[in-house]
Amino acid sequence: MVRSLLKSSVVSSSAFSSALAITVALCVTVGCSNERGNQSSIDAIETQAIRPLTQDEALADYDTMIATIQSLYGPLEYKERRFGYNFAKEAQAIRAKFSAAKTDFEKQSLFFEALRKLEDGHVSLSQPIRERSEIPIVIMPVEDKFLVARVAPTLAPYGIAAGDEILSVDGMTPADALKIILKYTWFANPQSDQHLAYYFFYRPSFIVELLPKESFAQIEFAKPDGSKKLARIAWKRTSPQTRFELEPRATLPGAETALPKNPKTLIGDDSMTSKALSDRLQVWGSIANMGEPAPWYWNPRLKRKYGVTMVTPERERVQMFYSLWNRELNVFEAELPAAEPLPATLPLVWAALYKHNGKTVFMVRQPSYGVPNAALYLSIYSALIDQYQPVSDVMVLDQTHNPGGSVTYGEGFVQLFAPKGLNGFVQFLNADRLWFTKLSTYWTSLDAAAASSTVGNRLLATAKGLERDSENGLRLTKEPFSFNLREVSPPAPGGAVWKKPVLVLIDELCGSGGDAIPMVLKANKLAKLFGQRTSGLGGSVEKVIDLPYTRAELRLTRGLFTTFKPDGKYTDADFVENNGVEPDVKYTHTVDDVRDGFDAYFKAFSDEATK
């Protein structure tokens, strides 16, 4: 009945580096080509660019950023222990490079070089990029190769298609370019970082070493049969005012949620089971697919071969659970206002049934823990479990490519798998005035009854404890904090709790809440995990400052999260940050697997689920 109280109390979906957050600010996504404006107006805008930063302005912003990190960045001491460095000394060494930086691009790169030291995909510095050179191709790492994940239809005449291997651009291999990219960008762990090869064809100005020297790129690629091809394609130059972007399919991580921008596929829509829908959802895995409503590997071949039938919940069941979840999410147990009626058409939740090894598999997708209405989505999952558990033997829960979301929704979702309740999600907070102000201000805003309630007293006690820890010079609070103000959560309301085996699909592009939920499920022995280690983005994140001259928005991780341990004994290995969550059964994609429509992958997790 208690839920997150503060807007900052979020396991953010910003599962990306600061560099990518900037890209997101300019909507770098993929789909169909969408050129806007005319070249003469573009040139006019670019000639009126804002003046460059002075050396003093750049240093003032840099110093502000470093001081803010030293004050408000929760995992700072944890990072210094883990990576064996002194952040202040590293930052000072990078500061000395400003004397040689002449352009804004060179100065900007030094900000990211410093942030890179934190190895934290939640940390971001967002500001407009004056210039970026791009070719609308997205690549993904598979084994030791880089395959085309998606390509704009406008490039069809050049013969480049999804599944082709990119060998080089202007003589530089993707692997060599990635070494340069990773000087300024980061995700969370080395395997996740490989996906930042995305920047090979989307080159922001602050990665100065990769700025194209010619107007055209010579791209060498190999077809699946091994034949090598060449294509000469023009770089397109963009600015904040002009956009030669690919039409976005989904909001990329870097925003608060990663939901479909304009979801057209809705529960109850007859096209849910049509071949046209399956074709539309045939996508390749990359950072551009994080948060997609359907599994990133889903395609018509899998649907036909395994006899997969898409399913939806009965509306009446959703309505029943909607009332229960609205009550469950009520923080102070006050009298509830009348619940809003269900929308005429319910939002998409991808769910299906199929037979494998003589058993019925119920497969459900959880793409993101950032949703506009937690009670509504939890009600849909409750109704699905209530309706299809009786006819199923096992669940496969797909949360691959999940960029995270809110604690409220994530913890509610875990309750669906805990027949006896569970030890929930907690975070050690950075012991600073900002946290103290948030907690105490919220408490003082409550009416007398709420302030003196159990929840109100816990809030006040947390604020006092934080103040005491700060006065004692601690970086992190001595006691962990539950954003839902209860370390142990009950089962989901209404009895709709999954009580049969469940296999959770995870990968290196699960971050933040996409780390936290597998962590909690594994720690409570509620599920078996299959796939790759998750990213390791381990704390709530929030905007902390706008830098004075660039006006760049700095977002920092504000603590370290883990699963509540009744014995109170926590070590660095218990935290998600940089550790991620290891699978119980490991699976590594191969080039053949990808080019064969992921048949081997689908069979492997289906075999494991039905053992």
Keywords:
alpha+beta; Pdz3 Domain; 2-enoyl-CoA Hydratase, Chain A, domain 1; three-stranded antiparallel β-sheet; 19 helices
How do the helices and strands line up, and which of them pair or pack?
Elements: E1 10-11, H1 18-25, E2 33-35, H2 39-47, H3 55-72, H4 76-83, H5 87-95, H6 104-116, E3 124-126, E4 132-134, E5 137-142, E6 145-151, E7 165-169, H7 174-181, H8 190-193, E8 202-204, E9 216-222, E10 228-234, E11 236-238, E12 244-246, H9 275-280, H10 300-305, E13 309-310, H11 315-328, E14 351-356, E15 359-365, H12 374-388, E16 394-398, E17 405-406, H13 407-415, E18 422-423, E19 425-429, H14 433-444, H15 448-451, H16 454-471, E20 488-489, E21 502-506, H17 513-523, E22 528-531, E23 541-546, E24 553-557, E25 559-563, E26 585-586, H18 591-595, H19 599-609
Parallel strand pairs: 15-16, 16-21, 21-22, 22-26
Antiparallel strand pairs: 1-17, 2-12, 3-24, 4-8, 4-11, 5-6, 7-9, 9-10, 13-14, 14-15, 18-20, 19-25, 23-24
Structure, explained:
By secondary structure, the protein is of the alpha+beta class. Helix content is 31%, strand content 18%. It is built from 19 helices and 26 strands. The strands form nine sheets. Strands 13-14-15-16-21-22-26 form a seven-stranded mixed beta sheet, with helices on both faces. The chain is globular and about 65 Å long.
